[in-house]
């Protein structure tokens, strides 16, 4: 069963227009496309998003994928987790971690989320998204 998210995270971010963009683009992407875009934007091979390894750069990319997939697709936590070999509870935790880090303006995460956001804007501009 797919749960439909109707609102964006309640978090002040240092990324202008980001919250509005999340709302406007809900359901515009498939999880596999979000995975490809996050992978490309952060220059992390998709196989690492599925890997069991836990270096910070892989964990960040995996959690950012979960966050974007949750807000830009209509996929359930379970469907998002299946793409990366994780349980739905891991996706929930990842989403919350990114929300928390954005709300406290964790510089490393804000920069990475902004990079993915800008990459997706560029892809959208040139008609490359679903």
From TrEMBL:
One of its GO terms (molecular function) is DNA replication origin binding. Residues 30-98 form the Chromosomal replication initiator DnaA C-terminal domain. GO terms for biological process: DNA replication initiation; regulation of DNA replication. SUPFAM superfamilies: TrpR-like. InterPro entries: Chromosome_initiator_DnaA_CS, DnaA_C, Trp_repressor/repl_initiator. It comes from the Bacteria. Pfam families: Bac_DnaA_C (PF08299). This is DnaA protein helix-turn-helix. It comes from Filimonas lacunae.
């Amino acid at each position: 069963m797919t749960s439909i998210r109707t609102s964006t995270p309640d978090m002040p971010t240092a990324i202008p227009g980001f919250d509005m963009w999340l709302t406007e683009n809900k359901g515009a992407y498939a999880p596999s496309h979000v995975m490809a875009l996050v992978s490309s934007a952060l220059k992390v091979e998709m196989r690492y998003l599925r890997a069991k390894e836990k270096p910070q750069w892989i964990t960040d990319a995996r959690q950012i994928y979960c966050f974007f997939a949750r807000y830009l697709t209509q996929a359930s936590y379970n469907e998002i987790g299946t793409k990366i070999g994780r349980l739905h509870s891991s996706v929930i935790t990842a989403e919350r971690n990114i929300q928390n880090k954005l709300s406290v303006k964790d510089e490393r995460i804000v920069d990475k989320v902004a990079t993915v956001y800008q990459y997706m804007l560029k892809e959208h501009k040139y008609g490359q998204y679903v």
